[in-house]
Amino acid sequence: MILDRCPHSTTDAAPRIRAVLLVDDSRLQRRILRASLERWGYRVLECGTGEEALDICRAQLVDVIISDWIMPGMSGLEFCRAFRALERESYGYFILLTSKSETGEMVNGLDNGADEFLTKPVNASELRARIASGERILRMERELRDKNRLVMRTLAELQSIHDAIDRDLIEARKLQQSLIRERSRRFGRSQVSLLLQPAGRVGGDLVGYFPAGPRQLGLFAVDVSGHGISAAMVTARLAGLLSPASVEQNLALDRDARGRVKVRPPDHVAADLNRLILDEIETEHYFTLLLAILDLDSGLVRFTQAGHPHPLLQRAGGGVVPIGAGGLPVGLVAGAAYEVAECRLAPGDRLLIASDGLTECADPSGVQLGEAGLHEILRRNADLRGAALLDGLIAGLAGYTGGAGFADDISAVLLEFG
Prior knowledge:
By secondary structure, the chain is an alpha/beta fold. The protein has two domains: 2-144, Response regulator (Rossmann fold); 179-416, 4-Layer Sandwich (Phosphatase 2c, domain 1). It has helices at residues 27-39, 50-59, 76-84, 106-111, 124-178, 228-241, 266-279, 356-359, 370-380, 386-401, and strands at 2-3, 20-23, 44-47, 64-68, 93-98, 116-119, 122-123, 184-187, 190-197, 205-211, 216-224, 253-255, 261-263, 287-295, 300-306, 312-314, 320-322, 341-344, 350-354, 410-416. The strands form five sheets. A six-stranded antiparallel sheet has the order 8-9-20-19-16-17. A five-stranded parallel sheet has the order 3-2-4-5-6, sandwiched between helices. The termini are far apart. Keywords: Hydrolase, Phosphoprotein. Residues 19-135 form the Response regulatory domain. InterPro entries: Bact_Sigma-Reg, CheY-like_superfamily, PPM-type-like_dom_sf, PPM-type_phosphatase-like_dom, Sig_transdc_resp-reg_receiver.
């Protein structure tokens, strides 16, 4: 029996529930409930057993189920448990009909997946309220599912964009690495080795060398502020301005009256780069620079240090000495003046020009390696030469960080004289 005390308005908004399933072994009870539900605008399915109800739920989507608790064969509670085990793309709202003798079992019903309970005889207003409650929950579930689908589509699109960018960055990394055509090269009795290891796909560090006239060799190390693509683009521009391939493009080189290649003073080159960055290249980046000119016969090194870390001179005996007087970075202050410093290498000496990525490596507790730590790694690897020494530096840094990787680009120029 159903006590209908609810006004039946025909102006209610169309329900979002697609189908209501009535499960009761009493045909009269189903007929009474069905009449009210159809009057409220719902599509109604019905059956008399839990087994039949499961078959219906497997065949089509049912949004709301109203099931009697006590039925022959499968009980309403057993049916509820089996219904919850079905694979569904949406939620189903489950209402159990109980008599007063089953009200104490409501906790058990909730544990088995029931959402609501109605006590027989069913009151129409109460039934309408339970259906409305289920409708709100189903509406929120559908909205959440739609939003999740939108999020998943957006994530898939973003992943596709990310993959495309990542492929481009991989190619950009190859191009950036190609700026260093030879990692190690001998010049008579001397040897130059290069290290360039970006922290990401691409980086803002650049190292290299170029012939600088008869028996002279240019060395440079650049560290552009920031990381990533924009910093890498600045390094690409700088690589062209210090290119060993073209005397006319290389700002550090010139020709004399007879057309012979000659080297320009490194402080003049730094000043020209400073003007170029501030006046012509529209970028927020600045960079540190170490530009050195080596006389391959005498071992004299003349260099300009523009904000770059101090070069490390390691004598043949193993001692390490920082040299240089510092200086302003390039592209930071208009009209900045730069100085030239000198040192002389003896046979067996070597000069390491490294970026601050080495000294700023941090251990697991956050303590940076510092200059003293770098000096110690150099001393420990004093018997190594060329690329093997640079590999030893990387191994020492990795050991210090505990294998956590490098937060900054790692770059260095190693000059071994005689």
